[in-house]
Amino acid sequence: MTEEIIFAGFGGQGIMFMGKAIAYAAMNEGKRVTWIPSYGAEVRGGTAYSMVIISDEAIASPLIKDPTICVAMNGPSLRKYEAKIKTNGLLVVNKSIIDIEPERKDIEILNIPVTELASEAGDHRIGNMVALGALLGKRKIIALESLINGLKDIVSSAYHNLLPVNEKAIRKGFEHGSR
Amino acid sequence: MCGNEALAEAAIIAGCRFYAGYPITPQNEIPAYMSKRMPEAGGVFIQSESELAAINMVFGSSLTGTRAMTSSSSPGISLKQEGISYLAACELPAIIVNIMRGGPGLGNIGPSQSDYFQAVKGGGHGDYHQIVIAPASVQEIADLTMLSFDLADKYRTPVMILGDGILGQMMEPVEFKAETKPEIKKDWILDGCKGRKPRIIKSLILSDGELEKFNLKLQKKYNQIKDIEQRCEVLYGDDSEITLVAYGTPSRICRSVVEKLRKKGKSIGMIRPITLWPFPERAFKELAKNVKSFLVVEMSCGQMIEDVKLAIDCARPVHFYGRTGGEIPGEDEIIKEIEHING
């Protein structure tokens, strides 16, 4: 199994963190992982991406050209990456702010109202966690519990009071993605 | 952990107790990590006023026998060249990290390998060399950083760790090996001469013929390093018609290319220099006996290719594919180039 995932969106949406969270959880499951950030002059509001490869085998190139999965958190990301996704790949769409319709018919599209679901979980800002949960609902790359249990290690202990609401958001996304 | 953080932690484990540096992307995680960890380890962290100050602080620290390191990225490394020449002249061990970005000038912050010439051909003035180490994964960054401190002490020489923006920023799992090697006894350091004869460490050698003598002594050391310390990794060395040559991030991409083409039954291999100086000439000479041609892939306009040609005495055709200015060569681009060479 090898999944090549691109997370993309505005700076500030937690794009880097989504990649780190799933890569860290996969590592804990004994899988090989790489994570590359866009480390340009991206600031809040600019475009950002992170690339994650999760594999059962050693990973040669850590760079992704044609992902098997893309999580598009904003419109420009969808436009940029939709055409590159591998056939039978998965495109997760942040339906809360993306109003353009994907054109590909040979990939799976998963529409998620991430902001609405995040609000239901208790904090509208954590749409990234909803999207991650949804992704795992659709593709069982790693166990949901691995993702949730890993968060406390990569989040500063000053914010551990926010872990329950993040878990709730992930579970909401997972439920939605599993449908 | 990202490559930069792994490098900093490995340095601490290796016994580095002095770090000075001035911030520059894409290596800022090194000073950031050091600023926290170095005081915990009982060492000294200094954010210096300039790159020049940093390299000369490392010079001073190394004089006292302390394991010392500085880091920067391309434009900052240019500023350190004078200091590196003085380190080499005074035979002082030190680690200089260059996480390369696009140049020339301020360039951009994308990954690059266009400082190869500067790293392996001198950079500073005078008849000197530095050992140049080129890791290709976060694990290797950790392992080779620890090795670099040992080599620097063993040969009393500056060692450069040459990475690129991707390696510095990329996260991969990493395990740190506990430092077991005993530190080499340093009987040359300046630690106060009370009760013993004074020692002098200097690079100004004016008396007739003495500098030539000194330089020949340095060369003897360099020849010994060339003899013992050549390192590289070879994939499918025995039976490949075309062999890719790459270090750092492009070597990861080339590995993917080799695996893909091998699955299609193509006769292709790869050699990845791990020491850029000393260049792994012996392995290249050996390969040239069986390989029909080489394709060098770099994130530059063609620098390491010169050492490949020298190593094999131009006995085989050496082709080149490179991207520059912070751009990364793609797998498909490399495959196209291979098809083009094979006609």
Provide structural commentary.
The complex is a heterodimer of chains A (179) and B (343). Chain A has helices at residues 15-28, 75-81, 114-121, 127-138, 144-154, 163-178; strands at residues 2-10, 32-37, 47-55, 69-72, 90-94, 108-112. With 179 residues, chain A is α/β, with parallel strands linked by helices. Chain A has one domain: Pyruvate-ferredoxin Oxidoreductase, domain 3. In chain A, helix 2 links the parallel strand 4 (69-72) and strand 5. The longest helix of chain A has 16 residues, at 163-178. Chain A is globular. Chain B has two domains: 3-191 and 216-228, 3-Layer(aba) Sandwich (Rossmann fold); 233-342, Rossmann fold (3-Layer(aba) Sandwich), CATH 3.40.50.920. Chain B has helices at residues 3-13, 29-40, 51-63, 74-79, 81-89, 116-120, 138-155, 165-169, 210-228, 249-263, 281-288, 304-311, 331-342; strands at 18-21, 44-47, 68-72, 94-100, 131-133, 158-164, 232-235, 242-245, 268-273, 275-277, 293-298, 318-322. The N and C termini of chain B lie far apart (43 Å). Chain B has 343 residues and is an alpha/beta fold. Chain B is 41% helix and 17% strand. Chain B is globular and about 70 Å long. Chain B contains 13 helices and twelve strands. A seven-stranded mixed sheet of chain B has the order 2-1-3-4-6-5-10, sandwiched between helices. Classes of the chains: A alpha/beta (179), B alpha/beta (343). The A-B interface holds A 20, 23, 27, 32-37, 39-41, 60-63, 65 and B 25-26, 109-110, 165-166, 169-173, 249, 252-253, 255-256, 259, 328, 330-332.
Major sheet of chain A: order of its strands?
A: 2-3-1-4-5-6
CATH-defined superfamily of the largest domain in chain B: Thiamin diphosphate (ThDP)-binding fold, Pyr/PP domains
Mean pLDDT figure of chain A? 95
Largest interface, and how many residues on either side? A-B, 17 and 21 residues
CATH architecture of chain A: 3-Layer(aba) Sandwich
Question: Nearest-angstrom radius of gyration of chain B?
Answer: 20 Å
Give the N-terminus to C-terminus distance of chain B in angstroms: 43 Å
Spans of at least 5 consecutive residues with low confidence of chain A: none
Helix content range of the residues of chain A, please?
25-40%
The backbone outline of chain A, from C-alpha atoms, is: globular
Side by side, the strands of the main sheet of chain B go 2-1-3-4-6-5-10
Q: Look up the CATH topology of chain A.
A: Pyruvate-ferredoxin Oxidoreductase, domain 3
Whole-number count of domains of chain A: 1
Main sheet makeup of chain B: 7 strands, mixed
